[in-house]
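Subgroup meeting minutes
Present: P.N., E.W., G.H.
Scribe: E.W.

1. P.N. recapped why we're keeping a running log of single-chain structure predictions: easier to compare across weeks, and new members can see raw inputs and outputs side by side.
2. G.H. added today's entry (316 aa).
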Amino acid sequence: MEIIWLSYLPLYIQLCEEKSISATAQRLGCSNAHVSRQLVKLENLLNKQLIHRTTRQFVVTQDGLEFYHQAKALMEHAEAIENKLFNNNVASGRVKISASSSFGAGRLSSLLAEFNTLYPRIEIELLFTEQMSDLVQESFDIAVYLTDTPPEGLVGHKMKAVTCAPYALDTYIEQHGIINHPAELNRYQHIIYKSEILNLDNWTFVKDESNQEYEHTSKITQFNNRESCNIKLDGSFKTNLIPSMVEAMLAGIGVATLADFALDKLTKSERNRVVRLLPQWRTTAILPLYILYPRREHLPKRTQLVIEFLKNRLKA
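Output recorded in log:
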């Protein structure tokens, strides 16, 4: 039995993912008119409107969205069969990745650039958001997010929890003095991370095997037989971008509590001027880092390669 609409699937999948006739035509190396004609033929074959398009809008209909998911799964299954039968070791195609802007902008970009040099035929499309995208509805292959509640229905690989430490410019510390206990952090101005879903102004600092006693107004408790201190920071500079926190810290306006990856892009001279405060103390973890992807029977080889690469690099 001949299924005549099968040949239209690559173009239709591209249309749904690009959400643009012109972008699809450019990617496939054909004219806008050809893409439009092919879409009309496919809709006539299926007797359904798949995409509602006007001069200003391009909206996939409910029927079109359902057909897209089935078509995507079918093409991925076909690709898996081809790889198995013909032992195809050359992976190609696009992998669309959604990532936390607070983590991804600091470390993920450089890792995926490294991956791209290893596998130049695999195209990486990386989009940063703070709110986790719906991977299925928005056609993402992989997500990399800081979260303690990964969505149900996704496969999740937990990498590690992110911990932070307070950093400041050497000249700022010279002006305001060194401190020896987290309770003294209120002597400084703080650069605070704040987004729609995360406000990092409360921290718990833990000191290993501490026998020293302090008289401070902040709350001091025991944390697994180690001294801990709960601190609420205050500051006049708040931002939802880690690089912005780093720039403000380098400008000398205050202390930024950052994960180590936030300092990766500093020059050697900048890094030499950055002071880590309270080195005998550590903060408790904020959120674990997850690699997430939709649960599918057959993952394309390109997606598998990206996942394994990130798992190895992020564990290290």
